[in-house]
Design a protein that fits this description.
- Its EC number is 1.1.1.1.
- Belongs to the zinc-containing alcohol dehydrogenase family.
- The protein is α/β, with parallel strands linked by helices.
- The protein is 25% helix and 27% strand.
C-alpha cells in the first residue's frame, strides 16, 4: 500500500545555516512534491536513518554543496511514481535510496569498477535533497530493491551504515579467522562487527559509550574497553569509526606486524604526528574509506540477509529530526537513529 502524504506538499527538514548542532542548524520546510524526471523514482518515505554524515553536514564539517538541502541518505520508501525510461521499479514497490546517487560511468575509476572514486560522483542529501522528509526523488539506477516483509526502520540503517561498514571491513584486509579491533561502536560498527563475526573473526570493541560496550558484548565481541585502551591481543586489522584523529596512532600501535587500519569516516579531526617506528614500521598499513560502489551495496545486502543481521535502532518521529542529531552528537543513540514520517 502506497502511503499518501498531504496532496502536493512534502514536509521535511533542511540544513538552513550550518553550525553547531546546539544552534539548531536544521529548519522545518514545506515544499511541493517533486515530479520524477527521466530515470527517477518518487518515493514516499517510510523510514530514513540518521547518519553521522548528516551531522557533519548540519554542523558544517562538510561544506554544503547547495543551499537548504534536505539531508538523509538511508531511505526506505514506496515508489509513488516513476520517470521516463524506468523499468526496474513500478508504483508500489519498496525501494531504498543510499549515499551514492550518481557517477559519470566513463572515467577510469568507473570503468575499473571503482565508481566510489569517480570525480563527478553525486551524493544524496548533499548534492540533492534526501530523506529527512516524507517524499524524495531517487535515481532508479542507484536505488536498491528491498523486501516487502521487513520493518522499514530495520532496513534503513543497512543503506549507509551497513554498506560503508562492509566496505570498511573489506578495506581493513581482515584475514580469515583474524583479530579485528573496532574503534567506536555506533550504527555502522555494530553491523560490520556482525559480518566479521559471521566470517569467523575475533572482535575487540574499543569505545567510550557504556551502552555501546553492552551492545557489543550482546552481539558476540570477545572484549570491550575504552576508546584509548589497549586490546587484549595484537590486531590483524582495525576499523576506526569514531571521527577522532587522536585514535589513529592508538589503533596503529595496537596492530600486529603487517596489520591494516581502515578509517571509515568521511570526516576526521586532525591526526597527531605519527612515530614511524611505533606506528608504521613492520609494514603496518593505514587506509581511508571513500563512499562505496553499488556492488558493495548489493554484496552487503545479500550478506545481511544470509546471516540474519540484527539491527539495533532508536526510532524518532520525523518531527524530532533535530533531536535525533543532538542525541547522535552526544553519543546518546544506541545502535542507529531512524526517522519515521507520519
Amino acid at each position: 500500500m502506497v502511503r499518501e502524504p498531504a496532496p502536493n506538499v512534502l514536509t521535511g527538514w533542511a540544513v538552513h545555516s550550518p553550525g553547531p548542532i546546539a544552534d539548531r542548524p536544521l529548519a522545518s520546510v514545506h515544499r511541493p512534491v517533486p515530479a520524477p524526471g527521466p530515470g527517477e523514482l518518487l518515493l514516499w518515505v517510510e523510514a530514513c536513518g540518521v547518519c553521522r554524515t548528516d551531522l557533519h553536514l548540519a554542523e558544517g564539517d562538510l561544506p554544503p554543496h547547495r543551499p537548504s538541502t534536505v539531508p538523509g541518505h538511508e531511505i526506505v520508501g514506496r515508489v509513488a511514481a516513476v520517470g521516463e525510461s524506468v523499468t526496474r521499479f513500478r508504483a508500489g514497490d519498496r525501494a531504498g535510496g543510499a549515499w551514492l546517487r550518481g557517477t559519470c560511468g566513463s572515467c577510469r575509476y568507473c570503468r575499473a569498477g571503482r565508481e566510489n572514486l569517480c570525480p563527478a560522483s553525486l551524493y544524496t542529501g548533499w548534492d540533492a535533497d534526501g530523506g529527512f522528509a516524507d517524499a524524495t526523488l531517487v535515481p532508479a539506477d542507484y536505488a536498491y530493491a528491498l523486501p516487502d516483509d521487513q520493518d522499514a526502520t530495520l532496513l534503513a540503517p543497512l543503506l549507509c551504515a551497513g554498506i560503508i561498514g562492509y566496505r570498511a571491513l573489506r578495506r581493513s584486509a581482515l584475514p580469515p579467522n583474524g583479530r579485528l579491533g573496532i574503534y567506536g561502536f555506533g550504527a555502522s560498527a555494530h553491523l560490520a562487527a556482525q559480518v566479521a563475526l559471521a566470517e569467523g573473526a575475533t572482535v575487540h570493541v574499543l569505545t567510550r559509550s557504556v551502552r555501546a560496550r553492552e551492545l557489543a558484548v550482546d552481539l558476540g565481541a570477545s572484549s570491550v574497553g575504552g576508546a584509548y585502551d589497549r586490546p587484549p591481543e595484537p590486531l590483524d586489522s582495525a576499523i576506526l569509526f569514531a571521527p577522532v584523529g587522536d585514535l589513529v596512532p592508538v589503533a596503529l600501535e595496537a596492530l600486529d606486524r603487517s596489520g591494516t587500519l581502515a578509517v571509515a569516516g568521511i570526516h576526521l579531526t586532525d591526526i597527531p604526528a605519527l612515530n614511524y617506528g611505533r606506528h608504521l614500521f613492520e609494514e603496518r598499513n593505514l587506509r581511508s574509506v571513500t563512499s562505496n560502489t553499488r556492488q558493495d551495496g548489493r554484496d552487503f545486502l545479500d550478506t545481511a540477509a544470509r546471516i540474519g543481521i540484527q539491527v539495533t535502532v532508536s526510532p524518532y518521529p520525523l518531527s524530532r529530526a533535530d533531536q535525533a542529531l543532538r542525541d547522535l552528537a552526544a553519543d546518546r543513540v544506541n545502535g542507529a537513529a531512524v526517522l519515521v514520517p507520519g
